[in-house]
Structures are given as structure tokens and as C-alpha cells.
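EI: anyone free to look at a 291-residue chain?
SC: sure, send it
EI:
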Amino acid sequence: MQATGNDFVLVDEWKNEVLSERLKPIFAKHVCRENYSVGADGVIFISRPTLEGFEMRIRIFMPDGSESEMCGNGVRCAVRFGLDRETIPHADCVRVQSKAGKIRTYPHALDREIRSVTVDLGKLQLRREKIPAAGKGNFLLEKISVPGIGMMELSAVNTGVPHAVLIVPDIDSEDVAVKGRAIRNFTTMFPRGVNVDFAQTHKNGVKIRTYERGVEAETLSCGTGAAASATIAFLANRLSARRIAVDTRGGRLVAQLLGRRNKVDRVLVEGPVEKVFEGELEFQTMKKGTD
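SC: here you go
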């Protein structure tokens, strides 16, 4: 499935475990490889919730085999997947159990087909210790010396996963791969690594490009990155509206900033979700040489 070009392989473990704990990261590393396998930005395992108050549980593994706390676009894909397969009942709100905690989602149907999903990313974390990032206080428009790059004006926020945001004048001229990799691996500042968003504001919204941790490359879209970029653009007084169109290379998302006065407490992100194909994959050949 894909959400504005952010594509995922979804594995149904509702009735039983398909892959053991040991094999899940191995599978993700292999199946996400472009040209050699399916190719994807991550693998999402769908299962019954282990706690009360949820309709479904997800676990997200990245192309490098690491497990992510959550993924905005991935959650939206997972909800449509569960509804399409009728493993979860249709409801106005679908509550998802994730490594990041409870995520509320709101599916939108047209002609009885789920076409888009809104995800509530929960309470934003702006303080450095919650991102996490070195130092104290909020991380907004600070001049930082990035190894191998030099001085840059960075902001950071945790929208379920950590994001560093750079507001730039011309996003198309940015070397996202080089700068993104340098900031992502700036572990003295971001001890757990960080996703990196390049954001260019305009009167109607913001245009972004994202270098994703775990993918270790630029992706066509990032839901949590859209939320982070819209939040920083608003807090930096680059945008005044609280409903912000966020244009990614894979399509448009809409971020709704919630909070009083000049604050942002939480963000909802809405966008399309599409089923690309469904099938079966033989994993035995992929496991050779990985034990």
C-alpha cells in the first residue's frame, strides 16, 4: 500500500504469527530492497491488540531492520488494510496500538471505499529531552554547526518520531542526500538519530522533502515529517494558518495544528491511501545466508 508515495509491505498476523521475532527485521531488510525484491519504505505487521481500548496493533520495521516507534503514513496504510480485510470493524475512530502508544485515526470513505485516513499524532514534544536532543529547552531556529556541513539553522520536534527541520529558500536546489545524512548521523546532538525535513514555505502552505532514518535515503513522503514541518513553520511565524497544505514529492497532505494562541499541542495529518497490490511471497529463498 502507499500513502502519497510512501510505500509499505503489510503482513497480516491477525490469526497467527507469520514471522518469528528473529525473522521480522531480516524480512524487512530483504523485502524492502529495490530491484532485488518488492521494494518499500518499510514493513508493517498487523495483529490483534495486546491491550484493551484498541482495535488493532502495528509494528513497523524499516529497510535497515530497525523497528520504528511509529510512522504517520504507515499507520494510515495499516488502518485501510485492516478495514479492507474486515479484520477490524468500520468505525469513525480506529485506535491503533503502537510502540509510540495509542494512535487515533479517522478513516474517510467514498462510495463505501476507504480513500483517505486522518491520523492524530498525539501530543507534540518540543523540549530537547523529549525529542531527544542534546541540551535543554525547546529546539527552535538555532544556529548549529553540523559536522561535514557547517553552520545551519535547525529546529527539532518529536511528532511520534524525532524530526529536525530546516526552513530553506529553494527546496529543489537542496542536496537532501548529503545534508540529510549528515544531520541524521549527528548523534552528539541527536543521540537516537533523527529524520530530516527540508521545508520551503509559501503563502498557501509548505513544500517539503524528507531524509528518513531507517530508510537512510530521501522518501517521496513522510506523514510525521509533514506534521513537524508545518509545526515549525507555524512556530517560526512563517505561516499563520492552522490548517496547512503540505506538498511532498509524492502528493499533498493536510496538517491541522491544534493548540491555543501561538502554541501547537498536537497535529492531525490527512491524506490519501491506496492499495497497490496483494499477493504471496516465498521467504525461504530470502532467508539463505541470514541465519
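EI: Helices lie at 23-31, 72-84, 176-184, 223-235, 284-287.
SC: 👍
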